[in-house]
């Protein structure tokens, strides 16, 4: 069966399932990464972070933008992600799984389609990097339950890479309810484990390399854009790294400066054929993609990366978000989220030739290829409540409208090379010779209902 038709059949099964009724659609409040509290304690913490940064700069000199982002976001005591209640009532921006469960359902169909395309391995590990509050994983697992007859007796497990103890407990509540338990031994790779209501094992890890080897589908949704980036500018003397320094006239403010001479990062991370005048490079993202590519090449599977990004065309994208508004990245460090668009061309280069790369493809095209229009038709046809219909239409617009998330968000995947080559056909005593031909991949190939 062609992959396009296979995905169509899976989607049809999901659409006609009882969960597909409009009354069953769950609507979530849209808050993942949240605004810093305005309490005196929070303001004191932010002041402490600024003092920490200025002390570091005074002691060792200007710091890289990557180091600044790392301190602001993940400092163990004062970092934005550490201190803030990321699931509070006031969100800085909306993520797709929080808009509608339809998003997660279609990702679940994509995973099973790729598992079937790989020959239905006996093992299927779903690995999510930075799973937020577990909403995406919960929607995917619900699809797995609906398609249990398709998965059969394959061994399915969920593996979450999460460094935040607070978020891991929230994820456990969402995915396993009261079935989870934390491991006391801090040296063990698995620091928390449990089971879903259907008996599917769930494990938590601090690092990707701790996840067991095996056929895996890796998911990274709005994960890479939060990783620290180095910034570089082209000058008459060559590439110079952008650094963060103390303002000479305002000692309580920070400013951007250029390194007076090449740094190790500017010498190693900027490509010789680079034509842009300003470049952002996420070295951590490059290392992570290399790990994903190696695992896919050695053990099979795929990696699906979904994020705001570009294909090596944009320049200065580093920005802060506070209260649904952009916020200067150096102002009041620790009070706002920091993010930079993902450079998918860089990820493709770092992935190397051991895997096949597809994308980036705009979210609008990916979701339409996955059948979101057909899903919406079913929901609207079965929905009589005016308020629910309005929510359905609004969520569809948020996900697919080019002016909202439809064109700004992109999908990119790594696949095992064997997944894309037509097998040779046995004819008599000889193998019929065929030139390698790409097989269609759900989401990245237009869906056909013929």
UniProtKB/TrEMBL annotation:
<dbReference type="GO" id="GO:0032981">
    <property type="term" value="P:mitochondrial respiratory chain complex I assembly"/>
</dbReference>
<dbReference type="InterPro" id="IPR038375">
    <property type="entry name" value="NDUFAF7_sf"/>
</dbReference>
<dbReference type="Pfam" id="PF02636">
    <property type="entry name" value="Methyltransf_28"/>
</dbReference>
<keyword id="KW-0496">Mitochondrion</keyword>
<dbReference type="GO" id="GO:0043009">
    <property type="term" value="P:chordate embryonic development"/>
</dbReference>
<comment type="function">
    <text>Arginine methyltransferase involved in the assembly or stability of mitochondrial NADH:ubiquinone oxidoreductase complex (complex I). Acts by mediating symmetric dimethylation of 'Arg-118' of NDUFS2 after it assembles into the complex I, stabilizing the early intermediate complex.</text>
</comment>
<keyword id="KW-0489">Methyltransferase</keyword>
<comment type="similarity">
    <text>Belongs to the NDUFAF7 family.</text>
</comment>
<dbReference type="GO" id="GO:0035243">
    <property type="term" value="F:protein-arginine omega-N symmetric methyltransferase activity"/>
</dbReference>
<dbReference type="GO" id="GO:0032259">
    <property type="term" value="P:methylation"/>
</dbReference>
<keyword id="KW-0809">Transit peptide</keyword>
<keyword id="KW-0808">Transferase</keyword>
<protein>
    <recommendedName>
        <fullName>Protein arginine methyltransferase NDUFAF7</fullName>
        <ecNumber>2.1.1.320</ecNumber>
    </recommendedName>
</protein>
<dbReference type="InterPro" id="IPR003788">
    <property type="entry name" value="NDUFAF7"/>
</dbReference>
<dbReference type="InterPro" id="IPR029063">
    <property type="entry name" value="SAM-dependent_MTases_sf"/>
</dbReference>
<dbReference type="GO" id="GO:0005739">
    <property type="term" value="C:mitochondrion"/>
</dbReference>
